[in-house]
Amino acid sequence: MEDRIPTNLRTLLILEVLGTSDRALSPTEINQSIGLPKQTIHRLCAKLEQEGFLAREEDGKKLRPTRRSRLMASGLLYASRFHIARHQVMQRVADEVGETVNFVVPDSEGMIYVDRVETDWPFRCNCLWAPMCRFTARPAVKPFWPAWRPRPVRRWCAVCISRN
Questions:
Q1: 127 partner at 20 to 30 Å CA-CA among 12, 19, 83, 158?
Q2: Alpha carbon distance 124, 136 (integer Å)
Q3: Distance (Å, rounded) from C-alpha 82 to C-alpha 134?
Q4: For 152-162, what is the mean pLDDT?
Q5: Phi, psi of 32 (to 5 degrees)
């Protein structure tokens, strides 16, 4: 068996390690799972950061996936055969409960709505300022509230309230 990781697979492995982690990681921590030379992992992480796939945390040491990485990942979710099955399950739930059903994933700037199934209600009311508020108290968002820092949440909510 060959121990060498193909060049075109290395950056994907870095993204995979970060994507399966519940926190930002340093290049050294990422490399514990991959096992590349130190210079290589730092060079690849720097390139991913330069191209907008990774960003540094405030401490300047740890890396996290950016919106570009998350959009790529959600695009892969949408393109998969599982999208059809997920959408069918969501449709059944929407039919049963009589409510719109959203499939969301957390993002550093709020929530990314990956899929949505509307109810068959004859009327729908949209609050025009709500899309401006990145953090609304929708049921899909509530489980992620504890992970968000209070100061930015208060700032974003103040913007929403002032537009109302």
A1: 83
A2: 18
A3: 27
A4: 54
A5: -60, -30
Q: Which of 6, 32, 5, 10 is nearest to 21 (CA)?
A: 32
> Of 89-93, 125-129, 150-154, which gets the smallest average pLDDT?
125-129
Q: Are 68 and 78 in contact (CB under 8 A)?
A: no
How far apart are alpha carbons 160 and 158 in whole angstroms?
5
Model-level pTM? 0.53
Domains of the chain: 7-65 (1.10.10.10), 70-124 (no CATH), 126-164 (no CATH)
Cα 107 from Cα 54, distance rounded (Å): 13
What is the DSSP-derived secondary structure letter of residue 6?
P
State pLDDT tens for residues 38-54.
999 999 999 999 999 99
Structure-token pair, residue 131: 């899309």
φ and ψ at 122, to 5 degrees?
A: -70, -25
Q: Which two tokens stand for residue 87?
A: 């959408």
